[in-house]
Design brief:
Oligomer: single chain
Order of helices and strands: EHHEEHHEHEHEEH
CATH topology: Aminopeptidase
CATH class: Alpha Beta
Radius of gyration: 16 Å
Bound molecules: coenzyme A
Number of helices: 7
Shape: globular
Structural class: alpha+beta
Number of strands: 7
Length: 212
């Protein structure tokens, strides 16, 4: 079956946002967002699809999503857009988790990281918010097609460079980004005691990414 690549908006079917949430949870199970649960993640992604500062390209096979990439021109702006809109529908699922002190701290760390990183390391505000391909579809070039579409999306928005934050343990992602021409910039701790690796994708590399 063939895979097509398409921008995603808020009017996409609920099944697609559910696929995105499930792929996210399967591929990045230890991240903070995965811990919120599938229904919460599904709602967050639907809100994000309506945010002017964010965009998504989905890999679709028979109207189901098998991979996705999200870019943002300003992650703080994405939070400012999504959080008030999510407050009503997400209050209960978030409250159950946020009441745990460790979870409350992780929420605070997640919210403060975009601005602190931009200021302290002079990094671009734009970044890859998330990027996953379903396990059974990995290694077939789907990721390269999504990454290429993201670069084109950034170029259309006149974004000259962007950052990529990965977990230190995400070795598959490191291999991918380095092969694509991203340059390792620094190591940070979004969450205390957990190392993350920051890559920078610059204008010169934006122009040389080969179409898959
Ligand atoms: C990272 C991820 C999205 C890549 O998706 P994918 O569909 O498997 O990627 P592809 O098949 O297109 O590319 C894989 C290969 O192409 C290479 N590649 C990527 N871009 C390239 C480029 N522009 N030129 C040449 N090679 C390239 C990669 O290094 C990799 O090589 P390998 O097989 O030797 O490891 C996928 O592995 C994934 O979902 N991982 C788990 C979630 C995750 O870690 N996400 C990152 C969050 S920051």
């Amino acid at each position: 079956m063939s895979i097509r690549f398409a921008p995603l908006d808020q009017h996409a079917s609920p099944a697609i946002f559910r696929d995105i949430a499930e792929i996210h949870q399967a591929e990045i199970p230890n991240g903070f967002l995965a811990s919120l649960g599938t229904p919460t993640l599904q709602k967050l992604y639907k809100q994000m699809a309506g945010c002017p500062a964010a965009f998504c390209v989905a890999a679709l096979e028979a109207e189901r999503c098998v991979g996705f990439i999200w870019g943002s021109s300003d992650t703080s702006a994405v939070y400012r857009y999504c959080l008030p809109r999510c407050a009503g529908s997400l209050a209960l699922p978030l409250a159950a988790r946020v009441l745990r002190p460790t979870m409350l701290f992780r929420v605070w760390e997640t919210l403060r990281y975009p601005s602190t990183q931009s200021e302290s390391h002079e990094l671009p505000r734009a970044e890859i918010l998330n990027f996953c391909v379903r396990g059974d579809q990995q290694g077939r070039g789907v990721g390269q097609r999504l990454f290429q579409a993201l670069c084109e999306g950034f170029q259309r928005r006149n974004v000259p460079s962007f950052r990529i934050v990965t977990g230190e343990e995400q070795t598959t992602a490191h291999r991918f980004y380095e092969a694509a021409g991203a340059v390792k910039h620094s190591q940070i701790q979004v969450h205390k005691g957990v190392a993350s690796r920051v890559y920078l994708y610059q204008p010169s590399t934006l122009q040389t990414v080969s179409a898959a």
